[in-house]
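Posting here for the record, re: iron/sulfur cluster.
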Amino acid sequence: MNLSSSNLERLLTTSDPVAVDDLYEEACRQRDAVYGRKVFMRGLIEVSSHCRNNCLYCGLRRDMKCERYRLSKEQILHCCRTGYGLGFRTFVMQGGEDGWMTDERVCDIVRAVKAEFPDCAVTLSLGERGRESFARLREAGADRYLLRHETADPAHYARLHPAEMRFEHRMQCLQDLRELGFQVGAGFMVGSPDQSIATLMKDLEFIDRFRPEMVGIGPFIPAAGTPFEHEPAGSVELTLRLLAIIRIMHPHVLLPATSALGTLHPQGRERAIRAGANVVMPNLSPQDTRALYSIYNNKLATGSEAAESAADIRARMKAIGMEVPTERGDYQGTKNQASVQ
Ligand code: 5AD
Ligand code: SF4
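Prediction output follows.
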């Protein structure tokens, strides 16, 4: 498929349903050639809702006066045990940028999880840290790190974040993570305020250049009490097209069907898989803390048990002809060496 910038712009804006169907079909062909008809499950554990940052879009930003929590090591291990029994072989520990999550504490948790579940991958998603800190986490056994770049356009980045958050530092973190041997996840929201076709083209160029092992993209969803609470949500259709384009551009990428898509459309995650995605991330967090981890409104499965979210997502994937294997689901491409610039 032709991925010249003029064709990409056409694919993002066309109202021709045949062209869009062809795009999704080609994306699925590319995915199936690398990974087969498999959807990999990751167990999401929301480890802390404390955050020092003030991203304008996020319901957990520092200025939100909401009840916050953090999970203990024992609570996290308990989530992993439940998850392991349900067939999860990757645990994603995600949280805000919480100063309490020192290197020592995070390393201790990572070591404990790896010791008890040596056949599982540990993914961290704890925001920006220094290179030495990332090195310690890697040393402790963390395999992967998710840090969305949010937008590859520096001016747009400055529109979404307060001045103290620097685009250059974000990029430096992604570079450090790659150099330290993590499988790296980048990504962005679709439909964030002031996003345009031009900024999206920069996101696509960035992905084409850096070739992250994972790319998380989902629609922007306004969060009550944030500066963007009255902004419109992002488009499901545009998100699906971007997923398909990213798959075709980078056939080996691990591409989640995000909960944000499932929140905006009842079949959002199934549609993402049909557009070339191959990862789902059901929530393994304890039931009583889920509602407190509200990065945006009406987040999926807020009141359900781990087993319930896992069974629901498995059934949904099987219903569209996909297998859900009990495997780590590692990146299958050759090691990417590209740098952010
Ligand atoms: N809508 C959609 N996604 C959001 N994120 C944060 N706030 C929102 C929102 N309101 C995404 C960001 C962040 C990830 C953890 O969640 O891209 O990196
Ligand atoms: Fe904190 Fe992440 Fe929310 Fe930004 S997006 S405010 S870093 S939790």
